[in-house]
Amino acid sequence: MADISRQLQDVTAQYQEIQKDLAGVIAARQKLDSQLQENQNVQKEFATLADDANIYKLIGPVLLKQDKAEAVMNVNRRLEHIQSEIKRVEAQLKSLEDKSEQKKVEIIQLQTQMQAEAPQGMAA
Length: 124
Description:
Elements: H1 2-48, E1 55-59, E2 62-66, H2 68-123
Antiparallel strand pairs: 1-2
């Protein structure tokens, strides 16, 4: 009984760690979604601008003039990078969710095992 209790504590601690990791990955996913949305909005704005429009890029405290083609290319590259990061984070999320589910099943099995052994321990 004490052995199962110790196992249950260990598995519960592992489950809590996975949940903490899951929360971090979810936060990263939300940040990426926000960046994706922002860059898509910039891309839409660029589509409405004339080719000779003035575009400025903020670098530190300074605004520097930038060529539209270069700015569009940078935003497109950023979008590709963000989308690949989203795919990576999604895979990580799926993996953690699977691990979480496995630990949950393990916890339920150990709890069931403890409950089954509890009456036997009291009868002895």
